[in-house]
Every structure is written in C-alpha cells, then in structure tokens.
Write a structure and sequence with these properties.
By secondary structure, this protein is mostly helical. Helix 9 runs antiparallel to helix 10, helix 13 packs across helix 15 and helix 14 packs antiparallel against helix 15. The protein contains 20 helices and 5 strands. Bound molecules: flavin-adenine dinucleotide. The site of flavin-adenine dinucleotide has 28 residues, from helix 8, helix 10, helix 13 and helix 15. GO terms for molecular function: deoxyribodipyrimidine photo-lyase activity; DNA binding; FAD binding. Pfam families: DNA_photolyase (PF00875), FAD_binding_7 (PF03441).
Length: 479
C-alpha cells in the first residue's frame, strides 16, 4: 500500500536548515510534499482575520525566495509545489490528490491559528504546528506577574535568564519524494515581479533572496562588520548593519541560527549589540501576538482620538522624497530605489511624517508595507507605533526629531544625502542639511535653485513641532 505523504506547508519559513516542521516531517519516515500557497492576499498572513496583500517589493522578494527554495529542494531530490489559495481548500485538494493525511507548518506570531487547524481537521487532515520563527514562543516569556512584557529592556534582560534556544537543526541531504508528484503552478505565472513598468532594477542590484545568500550575508557581517556595529549602526552612510532583515522576514535564516552564530564567537561588543536588535525583532513579534491588529489600532488607546491631518500633498511629497529636508528625502529615495532604508532614517522619516506633517502613522506604515523588501507584519507596525509615540515602550510623542540636527549628527560628512539627493551634492557640508539657510551665491555655486532643482522645506520645523505638541495636548486633555 502507498505510504501517505506529509504536506510541508511553507509560509514565512522559506529555508531548509533549522526547520523543525521539516525535521518532524522527515522523522515520520513518509514522503514529504513541500507546498507554498499563494493566498491571493498576503500568503504569509493566511491565518489573519483581516488578511493583507503583500506589498510590491515583498512580492518581488518572494519570487526570488521561492525560486531559490525550489532549486535547493530539487538538489535534494524534491520539489516545491505551488498552489493558489484559499489555503484550506488548496491543502485539502492537495491531500485528496496525493493521499496525504497530515500537514505540518511553522507557527507565526500574530494570528490565532487554531481556527485554521480546526478547518484543516474538518477537511480530514491532521494539523501539526512547530516553532521556528522566534527565539522563544510568546507564551514562554512572562513578567513575574505572569503578564506579557510591554517594555523592551526588561524583556531583553529576561530573555538572557532563560535557557538558550536549541541549537539550529541541519538541513537534510535528501527529502523522500512521493511516488508521483502532484501538479504545480509555474512561479512565473504568479507575476510576482513587476513588468510594466519594471521598477525592480535597484532591488536586483542590491539583493539576492534565498537561504544561501542569507547565510553568506551573516558570515560576511560577522567577519567584517560586527566588531564596528555598536558604534557604526547609527551612521547613515556606513554599511555597518547586517541587512539581514528581508532574509529574516521570509524566514530564509532562523533567529536561532543568528543567536548561536553570535554566541559561538568570543564575546565582542558589536555582535552583542547586534543580538540585542534581534531581540527587538522578538519583542515586536511578541507584541503582535498580544495585539494582532497592531497595524490598525494604536496600542495606547488615547491615540485613537489624535487629531491627524489629512494632507495628501504632504504625504505625496514625503513618499517621493521631495519634502525639502535633505535627510528625509535621502531616506525616502533609498527606500524607493532599493526597497530598504537604514533604521535611523526610518525613525527620522517616520517622525517627520507623524510629527512635522501630523499625518497618521498608519499612512506611513502602509507606504513602508508596499515599498520595503523586509515589510514585516510585526516590525513595521511596531516601528511605526514607536515613532508615533502610541506603541508599547514607544518614544514619547513629545520627543520630536529635528531633521536638520539628525542629519548633521548621523550624516556629518553628508555622504548619505549626496548619494540619494544628488542635486545637492555640490553644496558645502555646512549647508547640506539646511540648504534654505545658505546664501544665494553659495546655492548658485552649487547649482541649486530652491523651488526648482530642489524643493523649499514643506514645513517650518519649529512651527510644525509646536503644532504637534498642541495636538498631543488635545488628546491628553491638557489643552
Ligand atoms: P540590523 O541592525 O543588522 O539588525 C539585525 C536584525 O534585527 C534586523 O534584520 C531585524 O530583523 C532586527 N531589528 C533591527 N532593528 C530592529 C527594530 N528596531 N525593530 C525590530 N527588529 C529590528 N524591520 C523589519 O524587519 N521590517 C519592517 O517592516 C520594519 N519597519 C520599520 C519601520 C519603522 C518606522 C522603524 C523605525 C523600524 C522598522 N524596522 C523594520 C526595524 C529596523 O529598521 C530594520 O529591522 C533594520 O533597519 C533592518 O536592517 P538590518 O537587517 O541591517 O538590521
């Protein structure tokens, strides 16, 4: 009699190493059928009550990641089966076609997956869920009072007191194949990559999706950059951070692999600081577990009453990198071109949108969701709520970033602005972050005509700051 295969349902865990669900499927001794379901909406979010379409940049990444995974599976005698959703129907159909009676997958924070497991049960499949997205599962991390943490530093300190996460599992050399393979969609037919127009040239130049590239990036970072990370991570022009975020977002590398790669090295301050940032990722995921609607609802309830402005022109200028504040524009153009933005720049542009323009943080979150290759259901809303002052452990709303001083501090030689705002490249350092204060002769010599070659500032920062503080006072009932 034919042995019933196991369906390995892949979502945001597009790797073969350190994959507990895959290991369990192999341990069953049965053939394994790896499957990815495109759910029309965000495939990674199939279990969320309000599903979210993947953004354009993330779709581009997904194509590359699935292609890499399919090649890695083929090298191990297996295949990646591609199907369209809805998920329960796609998996039930596949089970009916192949005789599979079990489906295994990796748990994600953010959604209660029990209804999904029950629906699969009704379709005749045994559903088994495994860890693999996080260092620690949200239920395992509690304060002394038994509550989830709402503040990062005690959360991170607490994680250090727990037993370390298990060492990463090796990738299998082969996966047992079923007697016959079920049909699969062709990846190209999913049109995940843009064609008309093809705006992904900048992404192709910078990124290589896939598990092998993720591990290569980690090794290069640990060898070359980790030592300087603690001091360099805030410098906008220095390529001092790991750029592992899209690889982590799509699960091409596990956080446990990062944890142990760092801990296996002799202690160095830079690598420890890097691991702390991975701790932030963990924190954001645990927050999403508590508040699955974090992209839509402020964690601090008072902010539901915040008097956001409707400013379509301001929002459009911000998106296009034409606010007249060079460091803000540099960040927004880096994002548009490469699908990634430096963390410091994310904080600066975020503060500018929600405080200087008084535009709802959700509009920024949505734009990032569409344009970031690492657009993450946890880190993105948590980052925006932090910036907006309405999240757990957020920067207080009254702390308003000054885009000129931020630029001068974190891009002192102006390399970042010159790279992304070339029309200002010939301005002397002294004026680069504040071109409107330069004498007309200086502007002329640098070929800058404000209002023509580069915009006037969209708002006066000082007046905008006062306006933001007045808006805050309104919701605090102090105005
Ligand atoms: P590194 O400095 O090398 O850090 C290593 C890893 O730690 C990152 O890859 C990431 O997984 C995690 N990490 C680092 N900083 C943070 C942080 N502040 N919060 C959560 N995790 C962190 N990160 C995303 O992965 N996806 C997002 O959609 C996202 N949106 C953001 C939006 C805003 C408004 C802000 C302020 C931050 C956002 N971040 C997001 C966090 C952070 O900016 C990126 O993770 C980081 O810039 C990625 O670059 P890196 O991989 O070189 O980071």
């Amino acid at each position: 009699m034919m042995t019933a295969p196991v369906l390995l349902w892949l979502r945001r865990d597009l790797r073969l190493s350190d994959h507990p669900a895959l290991t369990a499927a192999l341990e069953s001794g049965r053939p394994v059928i790896p499957v990815y379901v495109l759910d029309g909406e965000d495939p990674g979010e199939a279990a969320r009550p309000t599903m979210r379409s993947l953004g354009g940049a993330a779709r581009w990444w997904l194509h590359g990641s699935l292609a890499a995974l399919a090649a890695a599976l083929a090298a191990r005698g297996s295949r990646l089966i591609l199907r369209r959703g809805p998920v329960v129907r796609a998996l039930a159909d596949l089970a009916a076609e192949t005789g599979a009676d079990t489906v295994v997958w990796t748990r994600h924070a953010g959604a209660d997956e029990s209804p999904l497991a029950e629906a699969l049960g009704r379709a005749g499949l045994t559903a088994r869920r495994f860890r693999g997205t996080l260092l620690f599962e949200p239920e395992e991390v509690r304060t002394k009072q038994g509550q989830p943490f709402r503040v990062f530093t005690p959360f991170w300190k607490h994680l250090q007191t727990l037993d370390p996460p298990p060492r990463p599992l090796p990738a299998p050399e082969r996966l047992p194949a079923p007697e016959t393979w079920p049909a699969s969609d062709a990846l190209d037919d999913w049109s995940l990559r843009p064609t008309r127009p093809d705006w992904a040239g900048g992404l192709r130049e910078v990124w290589t999706p896939g598990e092998a590239a993720a591990h290569a990036r980690l090794s290069a970072f640990l060898e070359e950059d980790a030592a300087g990370y603690a001091d360099g991570r805030d410098r906008l022009a220095a390529e001092a951070t790991s750029r592992l975020s899209p690889h982590l977002r799509f699960g091409e590398i596990s956080p446990r692999a990062l944890w142990h790669a760092v801990r296996d090295r002799p202690h160095d301050r830079g690598a420890a600081a890097f691991l702390r940032e991975v701790g932030w990722r963990e924190f954001c995921h645990h927050l999403l577990h508590q508040a699955p609607d974090m992209a839509d609802r402020p964690l601090q309830a008072a902010f539901a009453r915040f008097p956001w402005r409707d400013d379509p022109e301001g929002l459009a200028a911000w998106r296009a990198g034409r606010t007249g504040y060079p460091v803000v524009d540099a960040g927004m153009r880096q994002l548009w071109t490469t699908g990634w933005m430096h963390n410091r720049a994310r904080m600066i542009v975020g503060s500018f949108l929600v405080k200087d323009l008084l535009v709802d943080w959700r509009a920024g979150e949505r734009w990032f969701w569409d344009t970031l290759v690492d657009a993450c259901p946890s880190n993105n809303p948590a980052g925006w709520q932090w910036v907006g002052g309405c999240g757990a452990d957020a920067a207080p709303y009254f702390r308003v970033f000054n885009p000129v001083l931020q630029g001068e501090r974190f891009d002192p030689a102006g390399d970042y602005v010159r790279a992304w705002v070339p029309e200002l490249a010939r301005l002397p350092d002294r004026w680069l972050h504040r071109p409107w204060e330069a004498e007309s002769a200086v502007l002329r010599a640098a070929g800058v005509r404000l209002g023509e070659t580069y915009p006037h500032p969209l708002v006066d920062h000082k007046a905008a700051r006062d306006r933001a503080l007045a808006a805050l006072a309104e919701i605090k009932g102090a105005a």
